[in-house]
Amino acid sequence: MTRATLAAALLLASCSPPMIAPSAPHRPLTWADLTARARPSPDHTFAYGGDSVQKVDVWLPRGARPYRTVLMVHGGCWQTGIADRRLMDWVADDLRRANYAVWNIDYRGVDRAGGGYPGTFADAAAATDLLRAEGPALGLDLHRIVAVGHSAGGHLALWLAGRPRLPASSPLRRADPLPIAHVISLGGLPDLEATAASPDNGCGTEVVGRLVGGGRADPYADTSVPRLLPLAVPQDLVNGREDRIIPYRLATDYVARADAAGDRVTLHTVPATGHVELVAPESAAWAETKRLLARAFAR
User: Fold this and answer.
1) Contact criterion met (CB below 8 Å) for 268 and 238
2) What DSSP assignment string belongs to 39-62?
3) Could you give the domains of the chain?
4) CA–CA separation, 145 vs 262, rounded Å?
5) What is the mean pLDDT of the chain?
6) Which helix (H) or strand (E) holds 254?
7) What would the pLDDT profile of 4-49 be if each residue is shown by its tens digit?
8) Kind and range of the H or E element at 124?
């Protein structure tokens, strides 16, 4: 899918019904509505590589240490030209105000030199593992990390939780990846094989081939989340019923597979919700995500 085609799909997604009660009419939220707002700023930024997108933004609350820590992963169809970590600034700031610390990672997309396989995955892993080195001095509690990923970032958040299950032959495997205790996927694309076979998804199918790489006998073995099941961590999927970017069946099919593998996974369907509302701090979908976060940290 070309960038122009994706932009058209995102525009259609923005026309989904608003995230409010049906009795209270309101203009639908668009991507322009979200990104045109005054942009809050993180408290710190760390680099984990030489590329300008190999960065992590840290958002720190003002309460007492140690801080509950959320690992945040942005979407954008695995393409840097579509979105980077700044797309999550508004929900990261909202979590900061709610006394969570946010470790908001970036990574090279398939449209950037070094991205694709294995670079995109290696970046996500390196940005996550940097938390172990830098987090304690900032007061971040590493004992229970909850990952929140949106769209393509939902896939990567689940993949990060599944790293201990990577095949021994994979160049992405590491001896001691940072443990993820819980994952919340917001309109995610966990099953890359299903995504590649779904031309109705807003990212298209060609991008998956660029993400998983060619010339390998089984390019999904260490890249697609269902191949790593069971992840052995609780998983919540938050999806809009009117999401025109992520077909709803991609969520229900993944839940069925994860459940059959023995994982504890729950799909939370938010009515009158498209793709944009999932990362808008005033939306019902984001309120549901915050409820799930509070529950995850209370365990």
Assistant:
1) yes
2) PP--SEEEESSSSTT-EEEEE--S
3) 3-17+45-298 (3.40.50.1820)
4) 21
5) 91
6) helix 248-260
7) 444 444 433 333 333 333 334 445 577 788 889 999 999 999 999 9
8) helix 119-138
